[in-house]
Amino acid sequence: MCGIFGCISDDAAALVLEGLRKLEYRGYDSAGLAAIFPEHRGPIQTERTTGFVSDLVSKANGRFKGAEIAIGHTRWATHGGVTDSNAHPHSSNDGDITIVHNGIIENAPDLLERVQNLGYSVSSETDSEVIVHLLDHETKTQSSNSTPLDAFNKIIQMLEGSWAIAAIMKGLDGILVARNGAPLIAGRGHGCVCVSSDAQPFYGRCSEVAYLNDGDVFLLSKDGLHGDDSILIPSFEVLEGTYEEQDPGRFGHMMLKEIYDQPISISNAMGGRISADGMNVELGGFSITKEEISALERINIVACGSAYYASLIGIEFLRKFTNITVEAFRASEFPAKSVCNERTLTIGVSQSGETKDTLDALQNAKVAGSNISSFCNVIGSTMSRLTGNGAYLHAGPEFAVASTKAVSNMMIVFALLSLSLSENSLEKREIISEMRKLPSRITRQLLEDDGSVQKAVDLISGSNTAIFIGRGISAPLTQEGALKMMEVAYLPCIAYPGGELKHGPIALIEEGTPVIAIAPTDSSLSLMESSIRECKSRGGRIILITDSDGHITETADIVIPAQSTHPMLSPIINTIPLQLLAYNLGLATGNNVDRPRNLAKSVTVV
Ligand code: F6R
Questions:
Q1: pLDDT at 1 over 90
Q2: Would you say residue 42 has pLDDT above 80?
Q3: Which DSSP symbol is given to 521?
């Protein structure tokens, strides 16, 4: 979590503020900035505040104009509350050194004792502040022929945990940078050299990027990265991908725009991967051959949150179209030692490609002998570089914290991988043909608004819980629907397979409890009808998402009509009303739907 941006240019602070705005999705509790002016006139200037980058801009009030070296930070609190003093940057007691940090310093309590014993006064509750005092002590006590980079190198050795750090020092023409377990990328463009947590802020500024690796410690100066002879300096390469403006336009919110992006983003996920005759599928970047895959003992999927729910749906395709044992795991609970060996493949699924739990699971899988691969949305992300092969989701940049279009594309990419591994069959052709129709079906789903979503929002508003039920391939989708509603509308929700309800959770249903039932026309339709009747007879108010116009609709208080498709693809259609329900309920509740409380887009801590 947290975003870091640093820059050397003739108006460095302005670029840092612009960069921070683009990184704000990574954390938005607080923001801060530190800057050095040309020829090191005056001390390092700093400003920080709780709130958004816009609050920082107001507080800075033009004071940083003309700064030559600057670093900035957007925070997602881990250690210490959301206060001005816990916001980054953190400065040495004499103000000559300032740092920003993303990650967690696990041995901070020991280091804190150490700096306090050395006489430093500590002014925040963070695990990060120790770094600046250690650096200050080292630079003041090292031998006269040592450099600031030597001091930085030395104190980095003392840290345990994860970090991306940028530090500036009075008298130093550059930014000290270090990476371990949290992303950091250097960028170079006309008149500027930058460092950032991800590549987004570079578009339009930098044409080349260099990806730092774990363990790297460098000085970034106007002419590039400098380090110890023992460390390989990553080379600058052309910045790939395209920049998409974080502008919701007529939609008003990024979440709504991204929901409406889905006809295009789904079509982009399929583009160039399905043969013109609709008979074959190929996932170019997925370099493991069909033969190698069929020799596998098992495939493990590791993912978190919505990516995990998309994976639970996705593995149904792999189970249907291959004979390989496939299991999806929450990355934070991945039992690598029990399920990995040389005859396994472990695939990380992630929008950001930076989720620490998923990265750790992949690393553990690798150590246990597994082959690794990934489905990521962000090009050049840590995960795609770690695995070195895989399939991009091609959903386009996703800015709203709640994932929408990337989740749909995860399901699509699972379907594509499964189809690429399967022999030709009538069902394969049918599914491919239905997949090609998905963009137009989703367009219709989005445009044919009969007011039922709004009626459902009115029904749920004011309730103290909502219950999501579904069966078969819709069972994991209930979890995704519930997660979306919890994170955007702050409504406690539970999600259960329809058949499980009677084994306990039905006790929660009382007069008026909203029950959101997902019932596509598939083999579980009549069983879903029974589950719905069980809820209804106990006072549940039923919101039914279905493409059926049969008697199941008579059980519902509100029917949200869904477009028909192949039953296996139904979650890709049915996720749309679930997203719209969460969005509209969040809006009705007065929440910041794009930046829900306590969350961040990219979860880079464990
Ligand atoms: C929910 C959501 C999160 C993410 C999860 C994994 O809307 O966005 O649950 O799905 O944090 O993130 P990625 O996909 O970036 O690994």
A1: no
A2: no
A3: S
For ligand 1, atom 3, name the residue with the nearest CA.
Answer: 305
* Residue 355 to residue 544: CA distance in whole angstroms: 34
Q: 309 C-alpha to center of ligand 1: Å?
A: 10
The model carries a pTM of 0.90
For residue 170, what pLDDT band results from cuts at 50, 70 and 90?
A: very high
How many Å apart are CA 352 and CA 205, to the nearest integer?
Answer: 22
Determine whether 129 is exposed, middle or buried from the number of CB atoms within 10 Å of its CB (0-12, 13-18, 19+).
buried
C-alpha to C-alpha distance for 349 and 375, rounded to whole angstroms:
5
**pLDDT, position 244:** 74
CB distance 304 to ligand 1 below 6 Å: yes
Provide the residue count of the chain.
606
CA angle at 603 for the pair 597 and 605, rounded to the nearest 5°? 115
The pLDDT, as a whole number, for residue 600 is 84
Measured between alpha carbons, how far is 535 from 532 in angstroms, rounded to an integer?
A: 5
- CA–CA dist 331, 353 (Å, integer): 13
Give the closest residue (by CA) to ligand 1 atom 16: 350
User: For residues 417 and 321, what is the distance between their CA atoms, to the nearest angstrom?
Assistant: 9
Instruction: Provide the mean pLDDT of the chain.
Output: 95
- Nearest-atom index, ligand 1, CA of 404: 7
Closest residue by Cα to atom 10, ligand 1, is: 306
CA-angle at 108, arms to 105 and 114, nearest 5°: 140
User: Whose alpha carbon is nearest atom 6 of ligand 1?
Assistant: 304
Ligand 1 mean position to 199 CA, how many Å? Answer: 19
Cβ-Cβ contacts under 8 Å for 231 (sequence gap 6 or more): 215, 216, 217, 218
Distance 605 CA to ligand 1 centre (A): 13
3-state secondary structure of 261: coil
Return the amino acid letter for 430: E
List of residues 6+ apart from 411 with CB closer than 8 A:
310, 313, 314, 571, 572, 575
Please work out whether the CB of residue 582 comes within 6 Å of at least one atom of ligand 1.
Answer: no
Pocket flag, ligand 1, residue 352 (CB < 6 Å): yes
Q: Burial of 161 by CB count in 10 Å (0-12 exposed, 13-18 middle, 19+ buried)?
A: middle
Atom 11 of ligand 1, nearest CA residue: 305
pLDDT at 240: 82
Region class of 23: left (phi > 0), else alpha (psi between -120 and 50), else beta = alpha
CA pair distance 552, 469, nearest whole angstrom: 14
Query: What distance in Å separates the CA atoms of residue 595 and residue 74, rounded to the nearest whole number?
Result: 13
The sign of the CA dihedral 583, 588, 589, 594 is positive
The residue assigned the tokens 């499964």 is 418
HEC-encoded secondary structure of 368-398: CCCEEEEEECCCCCHHHHHHCCEEECCCCCC
* Catalytic sites, residue numbers: 2, 601
Task: Report CA(78)–ligand 1 centroid distance (Å).
Answer: 18
Tokens of 527: 């069983």
